[in-house]
Amino acid sequence: MLSRMHAKPLVLVIVADHALFAQGLELLLGKRTDGQFEVAGCTTNGDEAVPLVGKHRADIATIDLALPPRGGLEAIAAVRAVYPATRILALSGTEDLSLAERSLRAGADGFMAKSADPDALVAPLLALAAGMKVVTKDLLEALLAGSRKPEDGVLERLDSRDLDLWGLLAHGLETAELAARLLVSERTAKRMVASLLNKIGAANRIEAAALAGRYGLLDR
User: What domains can you pick out in the chain, each with its CATH number?
Assistant: First the structure.
């Protein structure tokens, strides 16, 4: 629903702790996005989030994490459970990374601090509409640092060629480039990559690159 080019405005609802913020965001979106968004409804009550999304068939919901009577995390989880296609941007008056992570785990597709420049909210909303996730640089780095710790003994299980290959993967080399560097055929290079991913427990090349950074292999 949201990956299409927007022939008509995206329907957005605002669930905020203060009506003034909701009004300001509505005004901003009306002036800065050339009619790409239609703010269909607003509420300051977390219990009204689900019916508000349903009433307007909202494409996107912005949900404040400081909501009465239920909190924003509960409102996010409720909207996600009932309307899984609706994209959710969590907003917070603080830059608490722990709270941000909890909002993503509750079902939000993105997180932004309300202290950010209001203009900075426009691009994340458009990114959400395009099907992407939205997080700040600090939050992304914190999530990457804490999501997976290096396993003991992984490096000891690899030979020098494995380590060389891992380092090349971490720098984004494609299969043809790997084959040329390692003096093997592309078919052999593909087998070597698959074997390495299995040895280090990575699902794909991107995850392998992230793990390489944690093991200090980026300078290899």
Answer: 10-146 (3.40.50.2300), 155-214 (1.10.10.10)
∠ Cα 101 105 107 (to 5°): 120
Question: Cα–Cα distance between 191 and 165 in angstroms, integer?
Answer: 12
* Interval 184-210: pLDDT, tens: 999 999 999 999 988 888 878 877 877
Would you state the pLDDT for residue 79?
95
Residues in the chain, pLDDT under 50: 1-6
Reported as type and span, the H/E element at residue 30 is helix 19-32
Nearest alpha-carbon partner for 89 in 97, 79, 81:
79
| 184 three-state secondary structure | coil
Report the alpha-carbon distance of residue 72 to residue 166 in Å, rounded: 41
Residue 86 has, within 13 A of its CA and on its CB side, a CA count of 31
**Would the CA dihedral through 93, 96, 102, 108 be positive or negative?**
positive
